[in-house]
Amino acid sequence: MREKFDKWIQVNKKSISKSEKYSKTITTISNHFKKSLERNIDLYKIIKSEEILKLKEEYFSYTEFLSKNKRGNRMYSRSLDLYIEFLEDEGILLEIEKIENDPNLRELEKEAIILSRIGQGKYRNDLIKIWKGCSLSGYKDVRFLIASHIKPWKVSNNDEKVDKFNGLLLLPTYDKLFDLGFITFDKSGFIKISKELEDIEKIGINEKMKIKLKEGNLKYLEFHYNNIFKKTVI
C-alpha cells in the first residue's frame, strides 16, 4: 500500500517534489502508535478512510504528537490528510468496479450511477437545475461547484445514488465541511456547526446561514444529521 500511496502522490499532487517524505511519515506515525502508545497499528494495513480519520483525531489528542506536528511544519497532519484522500480515491475505484460488474444493472443504469458518484452526468445537471448555484452561498459559476450527496453514495441504494434530492451543489470548502460532518442543516434549512470546527469566520460560515430546502431533501438530511454530523453544535 505504501508504494501505491507514493505513486498516487506523484500522479495526483504534482506540486509535491518528494512524495517519499509523506509516504515515510505514515510509517513513522504507525511506529508512534506502536512504541509510544503500545497500539499494534500499521496504517498501511487500514483501507478505510473513516478509520484513518478517527486515528488521526486520536493521534493529535496527545500533546506530544501535536507538538511534533507544529515543530515539523504540519508534516504529520499533511501526510495523514493525503493518505485519507488516497484511500477515498481507492474506495471510489472499488465502488465503480462493483457497479460495473453488477449483472442486475443495465448499461445505462450503470453509467448513471457511476457518473453520480463522481458528480457528473444527469445527476449533476439535475442539481444545477434545482439549485441554480451553490446551495449555501448562492454562488452562480457552476464550474467551481461540487455535486455532493447528502446521504453518502457508498451507503445509498441505487435509487438514492441518482436521486436529485439526495444532493447539494456546494463550493469546495462547504462540500468538504459537509462531507466530513462539520456542518449540516436542520428541517428549516438553517446551518448547524460542530463545536469541533474552529475559526469558522475564517472559512466563511456563520450560524445565520441557511439553504432553501426541498421536501425531498429532508429524509436525506435526517440521515446526515444522525450518522455523519459531529453532534455538538454552536
| Main sheet: strands, sense, barrel | 2 strands, antiparallel
Strand content: 5-15%
Shape descriptor reads: globular
Please bin the fraction of helical residues: 40-55%
Number of domains: 2
Q: Write down the secondary-structure element order.
A: HHHHHHHEHEHEEH
As a whole number of angstroms, the C-alpha radius of gyration is 19 Å
- Compute the number of strand runs: 4
In which order are the strands of the major sheet placed?
1-2
In angstroms, what separates the terminal alpha carbons? 39 Å
* Distinct helical segment count: 10
Contiguous low-pLDDT stretches (5 residues minimum) are none
Structural class: mainly alpha
Mean pLDDT: 88
Question: Nutshell version of this structure?
Answer:
With 234 residues, this protein is mainly alpha-helical.
Description:
- The protein is mostly helical and 234 residues long.
- It folds into two domains: 2-90, no CATH class; 119-227, no CATH class.
- The chain has ten helices and four strands; from the N terminus they run H-H-H-H-H-H-H-E-H-E-H-E-E-H.
- The protein has helices at 2-12, 19-35, 49-59, 63-71, 75-100, 107-117, 121-131, 158-161, 172-179, 218-227, and strands at residues 146-149, 167-170, 183-185, 191-193.
- It has a two-stranded antiparallel ribbon. Strands 3-4 form a two-stranded antiparallel ribbon.
- Strand 3 (183-185) and strand 4 form a beta hairpin.
- Helix 2 (19-35) packs across helix 5 (75-100), helix 3 (49-59) runs antiparallel to helix 5 (75-100) and helix 5 (75-100) packs antiparallel against helix 6 (107-117).
- The protein is globular and about 50 Å long.
- It starts with a helix and ends in a 7-residue tail after the last helix.
- The relative contact order is 0.08.
- The mean pLDDT is 88.
- GO terms for molecular function: endonuclease activity.
- Pfam families: HNH_2.
- It comes from Flavobacterium piscisymbiosum.
